[in-house]
TrEMBL record:
InterPro entries found in the cross-reference section: ATP_synth_F0_csu_sf, ATPase_proteolipid_c-like_dom, F/V-ATP_Csub_sf
Gene Ontology MF annotations: proton transmembrane transporter activity
Domain of life: Bacteria
Transmembrane annotation, as ranges: 6-26, 50-71, 83-103, 124-144
Identification of the protein by name: V-ATPase proteolipid subunit C-like domain-containing protein
Organism: Gracilibacillus oryzae
V-ATPase proteolipid subunit C-like domain: residues covered: 6-70
Matches recorded under Pfam families: ATP-synt_C
Listed GO CC annotations: proton-transporting two-sector ATPase complex, proton-transporting domain
Alphabetically ordered keywords of this record: Hydrogen ion transport, Ion transport, Membrane, Transmembrane, Transmembrane helix, Transport
Membrane topology: Multi-pass membrane protein
SUPFAM superfamilies from the UniProt entry: F1F0 ATP synthase subunit C (SSF81333)
Length: 145
């Protein structure tokens, strides 16, 4: 049972933590666009800081994954005991997707060229992947336990 909650807490920490970091990245990009300072090297610098923070944030969920695997018992946990953690993880995934799409909608794209719009789109999808990696892994591992 401890492993089920460890996966759930890992999903919450990673999902919310990386989402906050992603929204900070988007705010930096919006500021660059408004100041007409949107160029590849500046965006690359902001993305590098984003990925460093993602690695720092993911350290705790990875530790929780290890803890969950160590504490797994030979018997399986019943489905009824997994329902609340399952709903929490699905809620985190839905919240993160909604917030990423909302943040993407807030970017003023009328001032950008096609190449810059492509850079924003790529940043959004990379952000979505990094945000959802641990919650989706937790969801899958929840069914394995």
């Amino acid at each position: 049972m401890l492993s089920v909650w460890a996966f759930t807490i890992a999903a919450i920490i990673a999902g919310i933590g990386i989402l906050i970091n992603f929204k900070s990245l988007i705010n930096k990009l919006i500021r660059r666009i408004e100041q007409n300072d949107f160029h590849f090297h500046g965006v690359q610098k902001d993305q590098s800081k984003y990925f460093i923070m993602v690695a720092v944030i993911e350290a705790i969920p990875i530790f929780l994954f290890v803890l969950a695997f160590i504490s797994m018992e030979d018997s399986t946990v019943s489905l009824s005991a997994k329902i609340i953690p399952l709903l929490i993880i699905i809620g985190i995934i839905a919240l993160c997707i909604a917030q990423v799409l909302s943040a993407n909608h807030d970017i003023p794209k009328d001032k950008l060229s096609q190449q810059e719009k492509g850079l924003i789109r790529t940043t959004t999808f990379v952000g979505l992947g990094t945000i959802l990696a641990i919650p989706i892994a937790s969801l899958i591992l929840l069914f394995i336990v």
